[in-house]
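Most newcomers find our protein records easier to grasp once they have seen one. Each record describes a single protein and holds just a pair of labelled lines. A learned vocabulary of local backbone shapes supplies the integers on the structure line. Nothing more is needed to start thinking about how sequence determines fold. The record below serves as our worked example for the rest of this section.
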Amino acid sequence: MSGYRREKTIDLGMVVLALVMSAALALVQVRGDLALSPGLGSGTWPFDRLVFASPLLIGFTWAVNPISLVAIGALWWRRRWPTAVAVVAIVAATITPAVVPLIIALFTVAVLRPARTILTVALLALLPIPAHFLSSPYVSGVPIANAVILGVLIAAAVGWGLFVRSLSERTERAEAEAVLRAQRAQREAREDIAREMHDVLAHRLSLLSVHAGALEFNAGASAQETTRAAAVIRESSHQALEDLQVVLQVLRSPDGSPGADGPAPRTRTGLAEVPDLVRESREAGMKIDLDADGVDMDGVGRGAGPTGIAGLAAYRFVQEGLTNARKHAPGAPVRVTIAGGPGDGLTLELSNPAGPGGPRDGVPGSGQGLIGLTERVALAGGRFGHGKDGAEYALRAWLPWPA
């Protein structure tokens, strides 16, 4: 059932309920009771009740006022024009016992309309009661009790409507916040994966560029050197394609996660893999001096814990630094220094003679790697800096290493 049909079904139910309850109240009322200003009803048609006898139930009759029927019928449009329906119900209840449609109309106004409108309509509904007693100062007994009952019913209808409104607003706010949290989590997951894939792809593609350039410009290379370079190109291309496939799956997935059957990004790397990373770059022709004496490389391991996060950040630091050196200072020697220990933190520095600043052989360099590395180190709770230091260009970072 659509939302509109469901709402109109509820409205029809409210009309029927108001009709039945009004007829039931009429059976126990004296004419004019439970009207906001009973003195206005003259006791003649259309102010008097219409009495109907039931052909099925012998001796059972029910009565309803014609003006009350107008107010009851107006409840069909209570969602579309709640204020107008409430005014009609107030007028009807002022001169006839149309209390039930009045209560429903006031409840609807409290649910759907702003505070100023609610206050105005509520005061308008209460106004005939003191006005009637001011015009008839000697009225006492049952009319006063009925007036108190009417005031309580009006206040209860408005109060219950405000309570339902607050529940509805709270539910809508909770749903909106849940959507925002899901979108934020999805965006952060995409950013994390994009940062990870940038680091991996930039490293692989820069290696491809170096080896392809070596094959292009070293025409006199031996068959062994050519075979080794071709093998590195093939392996790097295969790994880069796998990583690219993961990126495409993430971007196509509605929840920002890789497909169940697809490859997972190789994020389980840590400081222990740095020597392999250096060796791979040396095979590509880079001159790298790695100084990590006294550092427990396996101590900053893999995983989702604090040391695992620091280990991955350290690995990406070295990887991005070597990638930048290949792009901007080809052939220049690179020095990688790693120091520190548990409790003191991990200090990393990667430096090389400053190149001309432009990317090598048209290899693009957008600067996203350093931006991502800055964010990664910050997320790990560390500090990161980069820039020229005299004739050298250096990357420096400090990462926490829990004791």
User: Anything to note?
Assistant: Confidence is low (pLDDT under 50) at residues 42-47, 50-61, 259-267, 358-364. DSSP finds eleven helices and seven strands in the chain.
